[in-house]
Amino acid sequence: MSKSTFVSGHSKSILTQGFTAILVLFSGVLFSLAAYGACVPAGTDGNDAIICTDMDTDGVASGEGDDSVIVRASAAIMLDILGIRDPEAIGVDTGNGQDSVFNEGTIVANSSALLSPILTPPDPIPGLPLVWGALIKVGPRSTGIYGGMGSDTLMNSGSVSASASATILPSFVPAPVEGVAKADVSSTANATATAMDGAEDSDTITNTGDLSADATATAAGVNVSLMPVQEDGKEGKSKLNGNVKAKASVAGISAGNGVDSVTNLTPFEVNSSSFTLAAGGSGVEAKGSAAASAKSTSESNAAAIDLGEGDDGLTNNGDIAATAEATATALDVAIGEATDPEAQAKVKAAADGSASAKSTAVGITADGLGGSLEVEPELLTDDTSTTL
Fold first, then answer.
1. Phi, psi of 210 (to 5 degrees)
2. What is the pLDDT of residues 190-221, one digit of tens each?
């Protein structure tokens, strides 16, 4: 019997010139789910035997010890709370110890982080150049089943899904910022999702059910202009860093470190997507030198099965698909010179508004040496990168 495995990846980099400032109004929604406590008993530092016989929307954390978790209904956790930049959602977390998870129901882990930057530059101080920095970063993570440290047994005959979404909205500082010689208003969005993660040590992972993992990272930059201070008659200087980065990473099954055994008997698909928009920046009225950087970097990685490090064994009889797409857009970075013709001749200006996108999609990846692979489907790969 012949089967096929399709792995695809796509990335493109777009460089766009001409920028019109974007002002976005944002309304945040606080979303939370009540915990029903349908997975009992609660995890402790001892050896626990936890059974989920009804819907539980708070996830399962078994704590320390050698634990057993059986999911017959559902264990879900959804984190979409305004103000949390790095939410981590884990459907079933066994913690440390030699644990076992048997899922015949539904496990869901979703996390998202959305940031709308509101930037307040420092007040100028006459004769003193200022440094301005803003932390603009989000990094949600989601894992359906997490083995943690210890040799674990993870088995899924039901459904496990993980999704993560990271978004940074564009920001605009309407007037030139006076008295600032250096400013760092870079934006970074990272999103990571894994359906089944063995993590550390030697694990046994078996999937005969449904798996899915999706990650999306979107980051837009800050448009701002600097007006540097003139220091005791010296020529003013300005340096602006407005780089924008987005990275999305997904895995259906991740074995982690150790000598692991992985078996997959059913088809599944994982998807990752990243997008960056560098909003640009400028140094204005600079009589000495002005430098502005608005690099746009987008990276997307998708692996259906990641064996990680160690001499691992894999048996795969399912069609697996991984799709990765990355898009990067960089807008014009302008350096405004002084209007005085005599001063214009002295201005040294440098601008970097480059865009780069990279995507990687693989069906099966392994960092360790040795081990054994038994793969029935033919592996096909289609990973393309386009720059416009």
1. -105, 135
2. 999 999 999 888 899 999 999 999 999 999 88
Write out pLDDT tens, residues 340-362.
454 444 445 566 667 889 999 98
Q: Residue 341 phi/psi, 5° resolution? A: -55, -35
Tell me the pTM: 0.82
Residue ranges of E strands in 122-209: 130-133, 136-138, 141-146, 153-156, 159-168, 171-172, 177-178, 180-184, 187-197, 204-207
Please count the other Cβ atoms lying within 10 Å of the Cβ belonging to residue 370.
10
Selection from 113, 112, 190, 99 nearest residue 145 by Cα: 99
3-class DSSP assignment, residue 343: helix
- Cβ neighbors of 124 (< 8 A, separation 6 or more) are 130, 178, 179, 180, 229
- Among 280, 242, 355, which Cα is nearest to 14's? 355
Report the alpha-carbon distance of residue 5 to residue 364 in Å, rounded.
Answer: 10
- Tell me the β-bridge partners of 204: 153, 261
Structural tokens at position 248? 């999305």
Q: What is the DSSP letter of 229?
A: P
